[in-house]
């Protein structure tokens, strides 16, 4: 009986310390241009029944270039030039060309992104038929007698630009990209405002969502997923793609321990009956 209890104790204590293999729900990826994409961004093509990352942070690959799709800003994709996880910023470009020809105002409705840091708001006036002759214009956009101009917000010369120009576009541009330089802008990001994602990341997990719905939240932890935090009590709630090896191992050990206990009790009862059948001489 003592040996059985020792064996059961050994199984339970060692089984409790077992950890399932890390399922690596949020692997980084590279579209081919050397920019490493990692959490909280996620690969749109690899989304199945769930995704790991922040809502609206889906990245797709086009011609070996990662592009960010700002879903609430129309069907516009922005090539990613750099991601800096330490200061939570991503630098994107409007176009691969250096000539700033934009067709629409930049409107950002994803509340997790911000474009007020590291950028200047610039107004572009395209194809102006009449203009102040002394003002410098964008050389690469000159078309016959028509000229185009760009000005920082708050520094626009007094003139009836809307009357004599075909179109006007407002967009953020990197501080060093104003006046004909690198044409792109920077976005900084923050955590989702809901407490579930904050609690999950504070416990060492990753925020995940089922079926692309922000209401169907779960926390991805080492070995499976929890409802809110990796510190939640209870069993892991695993995905269909990855079995919970920890739960399987623990269940097997407990079942084995119960079988050993039952066998030991049965053995002792039978031994007692056998000893009771002998009569003293």
Question: Can you walk me through this structure?
Answer:
With 281 residues, the chain is of the alpha+beta class. 21% of the residues lie in helices and 28% in strands. The chain has helices at 2-16, 161-164, 195-202, 245-276, and strands spanning 29-30, 36-37, 42-43, 50-52, 58-62, 65-69, 77-84, 89-93, 113-114, 119-128, 147-152, 165-174, 184-189, 206-210, 217-221, 224-226. The strands form 4 sheets. It has a 7-stranded mixed β-sheet, with no helix packed on it. It has a 4-stranded antiparallel β-sheet with strand order 4-14-15-16. Strands 11-10-12 form a 3-stranded antiparallel β-sheet. A hairpin with a 2-residue loop joins strand 5 (58-62) and strand 6. Helix 1 (2-16) runs antiparallel to helix 4 (245-276). The longest helix has 32 residues, at 245-276. The radius of gyration is 31 Å and the shape is elongated.
Which features would summarize this protein structure in a list?
about 280 residues, alpha+beta, 7-stranded mixed beta sheet, 4 helices, elongated, disordered N terminus, disordered C terminus
């Amino acid at each position: 009986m003592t040996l059985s209890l020792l064996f059961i104790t050994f199984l339970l204590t060692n089984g409790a310390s077992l950890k399932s293999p890390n399922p690596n729900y949020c692997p980084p990826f590279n579209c081919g241009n050397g920019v490493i994409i990692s959490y909280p961004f996620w690969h749109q093509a690899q989304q199945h029944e769930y995704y790991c990352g922040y809502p609206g942070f889906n990245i797709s690959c086009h011609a070996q270039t990662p592009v960010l799709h700002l879903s609430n800003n129309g069907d516009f994709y922005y090539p990613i030039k750099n991601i800096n996880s330490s200061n939570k910023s991503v630098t994107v470009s409007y176009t691969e060309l250096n000539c700033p020809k934009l067709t629409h105002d930049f409107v950002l409705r994803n509340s997790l992104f911000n474009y007020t840091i590291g950028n200047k708001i610039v107004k572009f006036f395209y194809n102006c038929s009449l203009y102040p002759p002394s003002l410098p214009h964008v050389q690469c956009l000159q078309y016959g007698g028509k000229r185009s101009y760009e000005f920082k917000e708050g520094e626009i010369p007094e003139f009836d630009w809307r009357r004599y120009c075909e179109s006007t576009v407002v967009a953020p541009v990197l501080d060093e990209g104003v006046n004909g330089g690198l044409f792109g802008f920077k976005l900084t990001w923050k955590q989702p405002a809901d407490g579930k994602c904050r609690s999950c990341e504070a416990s060492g997990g990753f925020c995940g969502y089922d079926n692309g719905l922000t209401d169907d939240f779960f926390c991805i932890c080492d070995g499976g997923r929890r409802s809110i935090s990796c510190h939640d009590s209870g069993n892991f709630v695993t995905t269909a793609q990855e079995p919970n090896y920890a739960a399987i191992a623990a269940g097997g050990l407990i079942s084995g321990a119960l079988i050993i206990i039952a066998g030991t009790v049965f053995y002792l009862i039978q031994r007692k009956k056998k000893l009771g059948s002998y009569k003293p001489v």
